[in-house]
Specification:
Elements: E1 2-7, E2 12-21, E3 24-34, H1 36-40, H2 47-69, E4 76-84, H3 88-105, E5 109-113, H4 114-125, E6 133-138, E7 143-148, E8 154-159, H5 165-175, H6 183-190, H7 215-230, H8 237-263, E9 267-271, H9 278-291, E10 294-296, H10 300-303, H11 307-319, E11 323-324
Parallel strand pairs: 1-4, 4-5, 6-9, 9-10
Antiparallel strand pairs: 1-2, 2-3, 5-11, 6-7, 7-8
Helix pairs in contact: 2-3, 4-11, 5-7, 5-8, 6-8, 8-9
This protein binds 5'-O-[(R)-(carboxyoxy)(hydroxy)phosphoryl]adenosine (KG4) and zinc ion.
Zinc ion binds next to helix 4.
Length: about 325
Amino acid sequence: MYVLGIESSCDETSAAVVLMEEGKREILSNIVASQIEIHRLYGGVVPEIASRAHIEAISRITYEALDTAGITISDVGCVAVTSHPGLIGALLVGVNFAKSLAFAHGIPLVAVNHVKAHVAAAYLEYPTLKPPFTALVVSGGHTSFYSVKTHTEFCEIGATRDDAAGEAFDKIGRVIGMPYPGGAAMDALAKEGDANAIKLPSPAIVGDNADFSFSGLKTAALNYINGERQKGNEPSHADIAASYTKVIVDAIVKKTSYVLDSEKTAQLVLAGGVAANSHIRGALEQLCKKRGVEFCRPSLKLCSDNAAMVAAAGYFEYLEQNFANTSLNASANDDGN
Ligand code: KG4
Ligand code: ZN
């Protein structure tokens, strides 16, 4: 079945056509229109500008996805759209467009949770992957562990109690002059610095849990940078990136170890935009190897926001007959309410 995925939860408008069948997943198109250049001017995503840019792009991107896939709308078996969580105005653009398209053409519509979609990206590249397994989603808005019970049912094991890892990378990246979003640039710069140069607090919450807190780490890094600047020194950006990355990677490894022990899982899926981080990928690769756990990490283009992952998640909602109707609404919240 051809699934048309539509994604507009933050600053990427995306549409994709994915062929999903038992044991078969083929991405026929996955078009992403990024708004990063627009938001870069402001150092972060401006919600109203994001909504407007989605409106301008969504129709063009969707028809481009169909054209690239070599199909027409009448070949589509299911329209899957991200309905939550995310920026409410941005989500509404995708939801309303998907509703109109689905109901005008009589195609079943399913609503998709963006976080579950990040995890579903793994099904596209690991066709034998099946729940139950454990997932770690690290993105601009989430840092959470899940016990994935079925393709559609997730149970949160632990999460950040404040900011997400992506936001933490972007924030300090911005303070040391990196254009928004600084995550990928921090990743590259961290390779050139001394990871033990600056002492920073761990974002791992003490104790037997799978929780994080990034706000104290952000403040400590900021205080260090400001303190040095007040003394007239510009601290080494590479050392900051390396030291900051090290405490984040160490915390992720520590909490993943705890989760692998408590869940006794055979497979770990790493998902979300921050899953592109080479230090995190390398450290978790080693950890999983040591534990004899299969490490499933989607390729970089499927880690960041894209509609192929939405189509993959939507296919399983379709199989469960979790259909949406014209009353489908967007929600900024994780639970869709
Ligand atoms: O999943 P995503 O595309 O959007 C959300 O759902 O939030 O994640 C975006 C986040 C941004 O914070 C970005 O800086 C971060 O992913 N990111 C990275 C890397 N590539 C993207 N963070 C660290 N290292 C990277 N290589
Ligand atoms: Zn995302």
